[in-house]
Give the backbone structure.
Amino acid sequence: MRTFHLLYHLARADFLERVRRYSFLVTVAATIYLGYAVNAGYVTLNLDKYRGVYNSAWVGILMTLSTTFLVSVVGFYIVKNAIDRDRQTRVGQILAATPLSKLQYCLGKWLSNFAVLAVIVLILAAAGVIMQLLRGEAAHLEWWPLLTPFLLIALPAMAVVAALAVAFESISWLSGGFGNVAYFFLWAFMLIYPVESKNRNLDLFGIGFVERDLRAAARAEFPDYNGNFSLNAGPRDNRAYLTFVWKGIDWTTQKVAVRFVWYFAAIFLVFIAALFFDRFDSAAERQVRAPALPQPIVTSGSSQVSSQPLTVHLTPLPKERGYRFSFTSIFLAESKLMLKGLRWWWLAG
Amino acid sequence: MQLAIEQVSKRYKGNQWGLREFSLNLSSGILGLLGPNGAGKSTLMRILATVTKPTAGRVTWNEVDILRFPDEIRQVLGYLPQDFGVYPNLNSVEFLEYMAAVKGIDRSLARRRIEELLQLVNLREFRKRPLGGFSGGMKQRLGIAQALLNDPKLLIVDEPTAGLDPEERVRFRNLLSELSGERIVILSTHIVSDVEAAATHIALISHGKLLMHAAPEKLLQGVEGKVWEWVIPSENLPTVKQKHLISGTIRRSDGLHLRVVAEASPAPGAQPVSPTLEDAYLYFISRSRTEEER
């Protein structure tokens, strides 16, 4: 019970800190735009020259696939700052001095990451409801086929993305720019490999999961269907598609269990993250530079304290020479500032 | 209740030593930790707070090795680091609730303590204001509140009065004195008068080494007869500064009144005066530098 209370507060504080930032408003705005883009036909799901009627099942799966496809990559970069924030705000060093374990901390950050991604999924689910009503191809809202793809495909995928973000932040060599690039390739691999290899066990984003189901439905309706399956994002697609009615995924216990396995995978990743997490002692072999403070202050009526004899000699400035602007000096100083701290390989690139 | 620091060393990158074979035994009371910048005060505090590990040596809390069993000390620890940070978008109640949960304090008890502590540090009227809008002094007061949340047996405060106005500083000193009963308080500060007012013991630290650990009276006895008041013409100051350790100057109508710390009278007219803790601090630090230069 105590652990749940702790995890709740860990995740809550981190979540509130994030959602109260202006940057989260930008995230929400981008999510709403994504919902609009799907609704306006900028993101489509096609099976050759066929598509489903915009009923609850079709809208649910279209929005879910769009969510898992886009949010799994963008969302990672949105949430991959939970541990770094504790370093930057210096809250981490206070946490390090408490009985909080590495695992509890990583679990708390995972829950917070997951909550942020779940909010995005929730907004897109709401956009799905609006989309179906606006499209008007099927007036009757069916909650089960509309929402189950979000719950059983998108959310488990987001749980893994949230855990990967914690893991990447905990492993020092993955926490920076290299990790960002590495994740992009990992994401591309996770997207393509299950579809290409037909290995459903590694199908985190659920694309292969629904692809077979949709193909079967299209083939049953249109025998000339050539088997093409595509989720497109780009200019508005104004082509006229032949439609068929898709009733949604038949969620058997086995299918549900397969999706729930991803939560365990996420928790396993958090365990891995906890093993690598440095508990804010990254300065193990580095000097901690605290803000400079003056020498001890004397307050007993004296005007000056000096621990060492000190004689000051400053080069005098010519009186007649006022402010003189030098473009070269400013340019050189600004260039130095801009390039300061960049690695040689960045400059070489 | 005992905290023992045994031969603790901390080496940083580039073979820089933060601490070198530092040993100290502490029991109930307030220890004032004094030393120049870079002396190793914050390193020592971070080690005691289990934030960082020493390269060598041992720290025990009631004879339990805290490097092997850090939770032994973390459960009874209140820590206010020098550069205390907050989540800028939380308010003080939310932040303290978070810290209380992390410290394992029961929810209802935490609520009561949070209210009391906000009252104590004079932040009650700002309880709903986002911490990002707090001044440095207000953040510092919140830091003090979070350090006291779990009624710590060991309270480590690093530069706690930095950023506080004089009234708050006095309030904090009194608070420390009240709290010091059945606990160990380690106070690091660059404001000598803070230590003078509150500390029961003082540790002088320089270049990562312990120079002296004694009661303030003992420290003062060490410079008894070594502090002089000497009146000189203002223009002689640069020359005198070159030769003597000066702990203070006051300009008066008859000239410049210097406070000189020296083994023997700096000039025939100089008068011996009672030493202060600042004089003692400067004397011992200066002596250690001279010894190192040799």
